[in-house]
Amino acid sequence: MADVARADTADDMLLIEHLPFETDGGIAERAAIGVIVLGTDYTIEHEWRSIMAAFPGVAVYQSRIQNDPLITPETLRAMEPRITYCTDIILPGAKLDVVAYGCTSASMAIGEDKVFENIRAARPDVACTTPITAAFAAFRVFGARRIGVLTPYRADVNRIVADYVRARGFEVPVFGSFNEEDDGVVAAISAQSIKSGIQRLVAERQVDAVFVSCTSVRLANQAPDIEAEVGLPVTSSNHAMAWHALRLAGIDDHMPQFGRLFDLDLAD
């Protein structure tokens, strides 16, 4: 029963305390997903919001990690010591089902295992993903071995990407790049330019799927239309990582409106 008292104020306000209440599962009733976003990233939160809104009871909580807007192997690796802290400040003390680290090239420059080690230093036993981890999971459920890769990166970062993908048993018959170093510029690359880049890759070599690398690149909302045009599965860093985080969290809803990937489950 609520406590009622008269407040000692000029207007004689009635103060009612300890009102009864009940609780439900909150906005994260089905899953709570943490994501570490680059300080310079303009895109990932927008694309994830547009996808996650279709999954009631799934909530996303983010932190931002300091990074250099100039994308080089050195600036990518410099983020490693900051990952644990950026994980720790996402709802401290609360349960997260998944933590995603939102940088594709850094995940390869640092290495997925090191990224996961740093995340789990703050959140032991949490399920982890990165854009490239998610991409590999997507390739497996697509049954794809020959991957066309499109990036915005400069040449030395592109070498890291190509070598990393091939070292995991996939072929890269064709690799395209916009060769842009600045995240702000990358985020402004038009949807038509991304589409044209994919079309060029597919025209040049036979591939099983196309992966667009970089969380600043906008692809998630146009993936289904591009897939219909090129006749192949298409995914990107944000697109694949959103799907992988959902599946790791046990969310198995099929949402083909987001593309072929969102109509598939994780491979056994």
Kindly describe this structure:
This protein has 268 residues and is α/β, with parallel strands linked by helices. The chain folds into 2 domains: 31-130 and 241-263, 3-Layer(aba) Sandwich (Rossmann fold); 133-236, Rossmann fold. It is built from 11 helices and 10 strands. The protein has helices at residues 44-52, 73-77, 83-88, 104-110, 112-122, 131-142, 155-167, 183-187, 191-204, 223-230, 237-248, and strands spanning 3-6, 14-17, 31-38, 58-65, 98-102, 127-129, 146-151, 171-177, 209-212, 234-236. A 4-stranded parallel beta sheet has the order 4-3-5-6, sandwiched between helices. A 4-stranded parallel beta sheet has the order 8-7-9-10, with helices on both faces. Strands 1-2 form a two-stranded antiparallel sheet. Strand 7, helix 7 and strand 8 form a beta-alpha-beta unit. Helix 6 (131-142) crosses helix 11 (237-248). It is globular, with a radius of gyration of 21 Å. The mean pLDDT is 94.
- Major beta sheet summary: 4 strands, parallel
How many domain modules?
2
Distance between the termini: 53 Å
Tertiary shape: globular
Which range does the strand content fall in? 15-25%
CATH topology of the largest domain: Rossmann fold
Order of helices and strands: EEEHEHHEHHEHEHEHHEHEH
